[in-house]
Amino acid sequence: MNTRREALSNLGTRVQQWLLPLRCLLCGASGADGMDLCADCAAELPRNLSCCARCALPLAVPAALCGECQRRAPPWDAAWAPFRYAWPLDRLESRYKFGRDLAAGRVLSSLWQTEPRAAVLPELILPVPLHRSRLRQRGYNQALELAKPLARAFDVPLEHDLLQRQRATPAQTELDAVTRRRNVRGAFVLRPGISLPVHVAILDDVMTTGATLAECTRVLKRAGVQRADVWALARAPSPGRR
């Protein structure tokens, strides 16, 4: 039965690709590996191969911990960010997050699944939530849409409404590190009456200073979570800022 279902699914995929050929979202060439991204553009994507073991900050020279983590460790236990937030991945991310380009989101989620996975998988994935006003404006939670296929691929449960944003906050984009921390302080709560596992991963699309992920981690740790990892598709190179 499963073999027949897989065969029908593969046939449907081939028909779809014949009717709507894959096209690279960056250069317009033919897509490759089942994605709207060509092989050349995929090779240009900035992998985060040399980074801090604790916060995934890109480093020019490999080191166990960046200087900031040595001075003051973040509240989470480990970070996984397979890409650096740089050209051309930042172009795809901007189209997905701000341009409502869901095709770009599908490419990003597919890319994430092909990267070496986190060393230890959690028992639960929680995407960073949007406030309901921002969700109405954007139409979807970009972190949740990235998390869904990743959770399926890793066979890890995903809950989208256990962690909630109780207060609308200004966008973090133009804020410095200190203002970012103040901006999200007290913005997140857990749904009442829930029971959380020992090990949880909080997932977002891009990690810049880590202020949002740190605030979510504190909420989870106060609720009894023993290990909280942070996952992000991409880590911005922002040395000295948390």
Question: Would you kindly provide a brief summary of this structure?
Answer:
The chain is α/β, with parallel strands linked by helices. It has nine helices and seven strands, in the order αααββααβααβαββαβ.
Explain what this protein looks like in three dimensions.
By secondary structure, the protein is an alpha/beta fold. The chain has a single domain (46-235), classed as Rossmann fold (3-Layer(aba) Sandwich), CATH 3.40.50. The chain contains nine helices and seven strands, in the order αααββααβααβαββαβ. The protein has helices at 2-19, 39-44, 67-71, 89-98, 102-114, 132-138, 142-154, 177-184, 211-222; strands at 78-80, 83-84, 124-127, 163-165, 188-190, 199-207, 227-235. Strands 1, 2, 3, 6 and 7 form a five-stranded parallel sheet that branches. A two-stranded antiparallel sheet has the order 4-5. The longest helix is centred in the first third of the chain and has 18 residues, at 2-19. The chain is globular, with a radius of gyration of 18 Å. The model has no long low-confidence stretch (mean pLDDT 86).
